[in-house]
Specification:
By secondary structure, this protein is of the alpha/beta class. The chain is built from 15 helices and 12 strands. The chain has 2 domains: 13-251, Aspartate Aminotransferase, domain 2; 254-358, Aspartate Aminotransferase, domain 1.
Length: 361
């Protein structure tokens, strides 16, 4: 059983069927095909306004190119200190911005607080000796599996508008956050002040399909050239668009996310019923972060369950991982089965029972 990531499974059936359907025949290359035009129009419908859309192959490309449009080489991008753009993208944002800097703030559950962001902006020196802040980036959902509320996003948007910052959202798990809040894509983005979005689809059912969605026209002006220079204008672009056609059809993308989120809650509920297990952060999307006894961690590993240990840096004040405990991350995907979740809980429960039996009375 593999709960290491939602990247470890293949594509969903509707996505594959759309890909095969549009594979045959000849069509214009580099996004000049009718499928690409149609899916770009679909994005406009989803977000209830005209948007500029650029398809790329990876989330790293989407984030780095988005920030390259928002932050000049002499600028700062404010983000959480554990954001994906800081910890997991090998300096790609700095590379594609030609030297801009990321400034990370702390925050429980890997979330930024609007008041703390505003305070940081007030503290920054107003001098040519220092790099000026030019953008704010948040992850939705966060690296700790938490989801920003509309109020929280809107408050951050106000800070951006008041300080002349562009507002970027890393939506690698955009669909999971969206169904967790039960709101519209427009409500979760531009209506709260978001200017540019990395729209993730690969984790939720596609093979390799990500999009840069630009709400602020000025940020879109040079994006086509940025994508080309980065090797992200895909020659057989129709096959990326085809994936998204299957992804969006009959709200398949939302159904996938609801399934993953529901199973994550089932997993969290099952584990927290066991003695010695608690959640580091609430389960609000498709990731579960339990703090559990080392004996349970070992039992899961021996049973072949794949998962990652996790950092405790964003725990709430007063919370800690004690000696004899471990914080881990378990990720549920659209392809995870109920039986796999239940089996993991059974293994954990058996470890608890064995530990109780071996303990001296």
């Amino acid at each position: 059983m593999n709960f290491a990531s939602d990247n470890i499974v293949g594509a969903s059936a509707p996505v594959l069927e759309a890909l095969v359907r549009h594979n045959a025949g000849a069509m214009a290359a580099y996004g000049g095909d009718d499928i690409t035009r149609r899916i770009k129009a679909t994005f406009c419908d989803l977000f209830e306004r005209d948007v500029a859309v650029f398809f790329v192959a990876t989330g790293t490309a989407a984030n780095a190119l988005s920030l390259s449009a928002a932050v000049p080489p002499w600028g700062l991008c404010v983000c959480h200190r554990e954001a994906h753009i800081v910890d997991d993208e090998c300096g790609a944002p700095e590379f594609f911005t030609h030297g801009a800097k990321l400034v990370g703030l702390p925050g429980t559950g890997s979330k930024l607080d609007a008041g703390e962001v505003a305070a940081l902006l007030r503290r920054l020196p107003q001098s040519a000796k220092q790099m000026p802040p030019k953008a704010l980036s948040i992850s939705q959902a966060t690296e700790s599996g938490m989801v920003y509320s509309l109020r929280e996003i809107g408050a951050l948007g106000e800070v951006c508008r008041g300080n002349g910052l562009s507002f970027h959202m890393d939506g690698a798990r955009f669909a999971n956050a969206l169904v967790g809040l039960d709101v519209s894509p427009a409500d979760m983005t531009w209506r709260q002040g978001v200017d540019i979005l990395s729209f993730g689809a690969t984790k939720n059912g596609c093979l390799m399909a990500e999009a840069i969605v630009v709400f602020e026209p000025a940020l879109a002006e040079a994006m086509e050239y940025r994508c080309k220079r980065a090797g992200q204008v895909i020659s057989k672009g129709r096959l990326v668009a085809a994936q998204l056609e299957g992804y969006f059809a009959a709200d398949h993308w939302l159904a996938n996310a609801r399934w993953a989120n529901a199973l994550a809650r089932r997993l969290a509920d099952g584990l927290t019923r066991l003695p010695g297990v608690r959640l580091a952060w609430p389960t609000q999307a498709n990731e579960v972060f339990p703090i559990l006894p080392l004996a349970m961690d070992s039992a899961l590993r021996r049973a072949g369950v794949a998962f990652h240990p996790w950092t405790a840096a964003s725990l709430a004040p007063g919370e800690a991982v004690a000696e004899g405990e471990r914080l881990i991350r378990l990720v549920v995907s659209f392809a995870t089965e109920e039986a796999q979740v239940d089996r993991l809980v059974e293994i954990a429960a058996s470890a608890t029972a064995r530990h109780a039996a071996d303990s001296p009375v």
